[in-house]
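Q: Got a minute? One more chain.
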Amino acid sequence: MEKLDRITVNPNICLGQPTIRGMRITVSVILKMLASGKSIQEILEAYPELEGEDIKQAIKYAAWVVSDQIYRVSTVLGTNGRYEKRLEVLSWRQ
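A: Always. Here it is, folded:
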């Protein structure tokens, strides 16, 4: 079971778009930077609050979104005291 514990969805942050650890850095921003040819190191330099694992999970999240997987979305109390959605991949569909 693989967890995407750094990807959060909160309707009060970035209009509910998936973000990295509840920060106002969306998964789509990371993916667009990668697609435009930026390296992971360049992204980390542009956003020093990010960690390499954040970028890896953004890529895994994108793969999950376009794949046919079974998943669980749970609601957890975030570090900021607000409830957030967490995604957990249960298995690949066969």
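A: The first strand starts at residue 2 and ends at 9.
Q: Perfect, thanks.
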